[in-house]
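## Example record

The block below lists the input lines for one assembly entry, exactly as stored, with component labels intact.
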Amino acid sequence: MPISISVKTDSRTEMVNITSSVQKEIAGVQDGICVVYVPHTTAGITINEGADPDVCDDILTKLSELVPPNRGYRHTEGNADSHIKASLMGSSVSVMVENGRLVLGTWQKIFFCEFDGPRSRKVYIKF
Amino acid sequence: MPISISVKTDSRTEMVNITSSVQKEIAGVQDGICVVYVPHTTAGITINEGADPDVCDDILTKLSELVPPNRGYRHTEGNADSHIKASLMGSSVSVMVENGRLVLGTWQKIFFCEFDGPRSRKVYIKF
Amino acid sequence: MPISISVKTDSRTEMVNITSSVQKEIAGVQDGICVVYVPHTTAGITINEGADPDVCDDILTKLSELVPPNRGYRHTEGNADSHIKASLMGSSVSVMVENGRLVLGTWQKIFFCEFDGPRSRKVYIKF
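Predicted structure tokens for the full assembly:
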């Protein structure tokens, strides 16, 4: 199995900064491309600003405005919106690694995007 | 050329589960990352739930609600909406492979997303 | 550091075709997968049609319609919309390379997506 990290979410929708957990796992890698993958269908992953938590709040609020819960969807498990948001954000990000460090922009952090929490989730990492 | 699989679509918008076709092509790969790529500009690719077909219906319905066809777009070929949806879904997914098997979550399947069908399409696969 | 190319943008929102710049950098690569990565949080990257510039105009117009600027966002730097659009488009694309050439579909070009310009930006490339 690939390297796996655990993510615990506390709300229905939430963005969790997993950058340091990913960094820890790739410390031994000198050089390459790292894929960070979400094996869930009601969660996604994205890279965005980590300095001001309002940025993540705005992303979650806008996604819920575009894809509100419980609006006559056909999927009847109450999480149709979560599935749609997962596809809008995507299931993986690719990040470069050099000298054992993730190559991120100054403001970039990697965020696990929970759209149907709270839950215990996994994220896979591979080079 | 990379490995190529053919996808035949029957409607203007449609999500086609291509997981088993991709799995067949990567059977000889022991370990790595597989990129599944759509060489079209009015189609995309995503990973989402495969058990209940209503999930895909909801994704397609919501995309058409957010990006309706024929709404005063500048591109005059009648598929401006298809191009926009293609960028929202993305042109590739990255999936891990271990021991000749795609590493997917329990509910995850890979879907070719047709936004301007019906057509004969290609999907490229590379490790 | 990875290979870096510079992109100069002239408007607040703009899509810049960077395909030939990327092609130039990968000319020596025989075979592989190339990740093109945006190290910014108010810009994204996508692959779409390059023949008719109206396609890009339609994408930018629709994104601004779905995520208008200055609509009561919590992030107060005036670019909350730019961050949200960045996550909708994504921070990287993966493209196959064979015999020193990007494997793109007939109409496909790689576009840097500026959402908070005009600015001087970077794009990273790695194999």
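The beta strands of chain B are 3-8, 14-17, 31-37, 43-49, 92-98, 101-102, 108-114, 120-126. Residues 3-126 of chain B form a domain with the Jelly Rolls fold (CATH 2.60.120.460).
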